[in-house]
Amino acid sequence: MKLLSAALTRTLDQATIQAQGITSLELMERAATALFDWILTELRPAYSTPIHLFCGPGNNGGDGLALARLLHEAGYAAHVWLLPAKRYSADFTANRLRLPAEVPCQELAAARFPELPASAVLIDALFGTGLSRPLTDLAAEVVAHLNRSPALRIAVDLPSGLLADAPQPPDSPLVQAHYTLCFELPKLAFLLPGHAAFVGEWHTLQIGLEQEVIHNMAVDNYFIEDNYLKGCLPKRPRFSHKGTFGHALLLAGSQGKVGAAVLAATACLRGGVGLLTVRVPQVGYAILQTAVPEAMCLPDSAPDILTELPDLTPYAAVGMGPGLGQQAASREVLRQLLQTATVPLVLDADALNLLGANRELLELLPPDTLLTPHPKEFERLVGIPARHDYHRLEQLRAFVRQHRCYCVLKDAYTAVAAPDGTLYFNGSGNPGMATGGSGDVLTGLLLALRADKRLSALDAALLGVYAHGRAGDLAAQETGEAGLIASDLVRFIGPALQELTASAPGL
Ligand SMILES: NC(=O)C1=CN([C@@H]2O[C@H](COP(=O)(O)OP(=O)(O)OC[C@H]3O[C@@H](n4cnc5c(N)ncnc54)[C@H](O)[C@@H]3O)[C@@H](O)[C@H]2O)[C@@H](O)CC1
Ligand SMILES: Nc1ncnc2c1ncn2[C@@H]1O[C@H](COP(=O)(O)OP(=O)(O)O)[C@@H](O)[C@H]1O
Ligand SMILES: [K+]
C-alpha cells in the first residue's frame, strides 16, 4: 500500500468527498464510527470506564467530538476537554453543536487539568495531519499532563505533536500513545525507530476513501502489507530440475564465524536454490560438510580467512559477507568479485564494512547489486552519521540512485530501496528476530531468490525481506519471541515462501 504525505492525505479527502458526493462532515462521521467500532471491539470498555476526549480546534478535534457523541449515545461515560483556540474548523464547530448537552464538555486551562486515573481511557484528538509547527504553551502542557497519567492513551490519526512525514526539532512535545488509530493508510512517521515510543501499536481503520484516487497518486514510499506479495513467487514447474533455479555461490565464514556461513547456506537452500556452493576457509570445511550436506564446499587454501575468488563461470548469483572478517586478503577477494562478476550479487555484513572502509570499491559495484546493511553498517557505507531518521532515508535514496543498486536497510520496518529511490517498508517480522544470525539468514534467502532467473531484482528483494519477517512470525508462534534463534528462521522459510507462491502453474 502507498504511504501518503500529509498534503496527499488532504487531496485524497477532498477527492473522496467529490467522487462520492458526500460532505466532509459525513466523512468525519465515518472516521468517528470507525474509531468507535475499534474501541468497542478491541478495548471493550465497561460502561463505567471514564473516557476523556481531548479535542483540538481542527478536524482531528472534530473526530474526537463526533466520537464523544457516539460513545455517549451508546451509554459510555464520555468527558470532553477542549483546547481553546482563535479559530475552529467548520466540522469541529458542527460536531461541537451536535454534542448532547449531557456530555460534560469543558475548556482546558492551565490551572484546570482533569485527574486522569489508571482506570480511564484518554483519547488524544488534539492535532492530526494539520499540525504545522511543534506544540507550545497550553497544548504542550496538556500533552505533558496526558503523558504523566497512568491511563491508556489512544491517539486519533497521529499522536499529537508528531508530523506525519517530516522531521521536527528534538524534544518537541509529543503524546506517548499506547495505540494510534489512523485512517485507511499508515503514515511514514509510524515506521521510523525514533517514533516508536510515541506511536505505540498502530492500526489502520477503513473509512472508504477513494481507491481509484489512491491508485493514481504518485508516491515514493510504499508499505508492504500481508497480501501485497501473495502469488508473486512463481510456482515450480512440474518438469523443473535443479538447473531451473540457479546455482549460487556463497563466500562466507572465518575462524570463529563459520556459523554465519552455515546459517546463510541453510537459508539459501530453504530459499529454493537449485545448487549451492560455499566457499569457506579451511577451518570451515568439515563444519560445513557436516552441518549442511546439501551444499557443495569449495574450501579456500587459507586456514582461517578467504583469500581467493573461485572461477565464477558456473554461478547464477554470488553472495558475500556473513562471518567474512575484514582482512586485507578478503578485501582483495571482494575487489576481484566486483571487477569480474556478471551475475547478481548480494553483499552483507563484513563485505559492507570493507566497502565502507575502502570507499573506492563502491565505484565498482555492478548495477543491481543488492546490499543488506543494518543502520550501523549503512552509516559505515555512506561515511556520514544520519542526523535523524528522515535524514537516513534521504541518504538511502541518494545511495541507491548514485550506485544504481538495491539496498535493504534492516530495522523493525526494513526499507527496501530501489535504484530509482522508491522505498518499500516491510511490515512482517518481530523483535524476536533481534538475535545474532538473523541477518545471515536473510542474506542466504536473498541469494537464493537472486539466483532464480524468473524473479526481477526488485521482486527478489521484496519477497526475501517479507518472507524472512514472516518466517520470524511463524517461528515466534512456536518459540516465543525471546526463545527465537536464527536457525528457527531457517526452518520457517519454506512455509513463508509457500504462502507467497502462485497457485497457477509456472512455465
Ligand atoms: N482521510 C482522513 O484522514 C480524514 C481525516 N480526518 C481528520 O482530520 C485531521 C486533519 O484535520 P485538520 O487539517 O483540521 O488538522 P488538525 O486537526 O490536525 O489541526 C489543524 C488546526 O491546528 C492548528 N495548528 C496547527 N499546528 C499547531 C500548533 N503547533 N499549535 C497550535 N495550533 C496548531 C491549525 O491552525 C488548525 O487550526 C486528521 O488528522 C484526521 O483526524 C477526518 O475528520 C476525516 C477523514
Ligand atoms: N524488532 C524487529 N522487528 C522486526 N525485524 C527485526 C527486528 N529486529 C531485527 N529484525 C530483523 O532481523 C535481522 C537482523 O539482521 P542483522 O542486524 O544483520 O543481524 P546479524 O548481524 O546478527 O545477523 C534484520 O533482517 C532485521 O530486519
Ligand atoms: K491526535
TrEMBL record:
(6S)-NADPHX binds at residues 59-63, 128-134, 157, 260, 323, 374, 440. CDD domains: YXKO-related. Residues 9-215 form the YjeF N-terminal domain. Its cofactor is Mg(2+); K(+). GO terms for biological process: metabolite repair; nicotinamide nucleotide metabolic process. Pfam families: Carb_kinase, YjeF_N. K(+) binds at residues 60, 124, 160. AMP binds at residues 410-414, 439. PROSITE patterns: YJEF_C_2, YJEF_C_3, YJEF_N. Keywords: ATP-binding, Isomerase, Lyase, Metal-binding, Multifunctional enzyme, NAD, NADP, Nucleotide-binding, Potassium. Belongs to the NnrE/AIBP family. In the N-terminal section; belongs to the NnrE/AIBP family. PANTHER family: ATP-DEPENDENT (S)-NAD(P)H-HYDRATE DEHYDRATASE, ATP-DEPENDENT (S)-NAD(P)H-HYDRATE DEHYDRATASE FAMILY MEMBER. Homotetramer. This is Bifunctional NAD(P)H-hydrate repair enzyme. It comes from Hymenobacter metallilatus.
